[in-house]
């Protein structure tokens, strides 16, 4: 009987030790499952963040492409405008200086070309020396071409060297 009792005590000790180990395993399993759930939630959040970042990247790439195309279009427009400006500069429109703004009734528009060769002779570096040598056009309001020439000469009579090169009626459609 002592042996039976001894075996019973050993069996009870082993059972209690096994129950204790099973309880520890269950606690560890619950803790591991809790950590797995937390990890899955974190993983889902990361996937959601990555999906959002991919969508943002795609949107930004599309926006960059659109802005690049818009920039190319603006550069093309700028180049066209520069070309048009250069073409406009190349085709020089007639430039008229208005001799006097006063206009009487019955006056017509005349283009009087005045020259002055002495300006270029006296000061070769004068910025308008060549233009005065070739002739500068003035818009003059007068009844006749002779009256227009006299008004232009009177305007510059205090300075020597001025001469009338040509007098012509203002071409239609110039303005």
Question: What distance lies between the first and last C-alpha atoms, to the nearest angstrom?
Answer: 136 Å
Spatial extent as radius of gyration: 50 Å
**How do the strands line up in the largest sheet?**
1-3-2-4
Could you estimate the helical fraction of the residues in percent? 55-70%
DSSP strand tally = 4
- Class per helix and strand makeup: alpha+beta
Return the string of H and E elements: HEEHHEHE
User: What integer is the average pLDDT?
Assistant: 86
Strand percentage lies at 5-15%
Task: Describe the model.
The chain has 175 residues and is α+β, with helices and mostly antiparallel strands. The protein has a 4-stranded mixed sheet. The chain starts with a helix and ends in a 6-residue tail after the last strand. The mean pLDDT is 86.
Question: Could you provide a short overview of the structure?
Answer:
This protein is of the alpha+beta class and 175 residues long. The protein is 64% helix and 15% strand. The chain has four helices and four strands; from the N terminus they run αββααβαβ.
Name the descriptors:
about 180 residues; alpha+beta; 4-stranded mixed beta sheet; 4 strands; about 65% helix
Produce the secondary structure layout.
Layout: H1 2-90, E1 97-98, E2 108-116, H2 117-122, H3 129-134, E3 136-142, H4 145-155, E4 162-169
Parallel strand pairs: 1-3
Antiparallel strand pairs: 2-3, 2-4
């Amino acid at each position: 009987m002592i042996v039976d009792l001894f075996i019973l005590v050993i069996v009870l000790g082993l059972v209690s030790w096994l129950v204790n180990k099973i309880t520890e395993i269950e606690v560890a399993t619950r803790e591991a499952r809790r950590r797995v759930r937390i990890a899955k939630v974190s993983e889902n959040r990361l996937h959601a963040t990555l999906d959002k970042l991919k969508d943002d990247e795609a949107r930004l790439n599309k926006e960059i492409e659109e802005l690049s195309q818009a920039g190319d279009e603006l550069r093309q427009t700028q180049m066209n405008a520069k070309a048009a400006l250069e073409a406009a500069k190349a085709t020089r429109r007639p430039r008229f200086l208005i001799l006097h703004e006063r206009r009487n009734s019955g006056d017509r528009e005349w283009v009087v070309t005045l020259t002055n060769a002495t300006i270029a002779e006296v000061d070769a570096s004068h910025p308008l020396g060549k233009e005065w040598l070739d002739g500068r056009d003035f818009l003059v309001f007068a009844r006749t071409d002779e009256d227009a020439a006299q008004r232009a000469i009177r305007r510059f009579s205090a300075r020597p060297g001025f001469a009338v090169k040509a007098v012509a009626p203002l071409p239609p459609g110039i303005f």
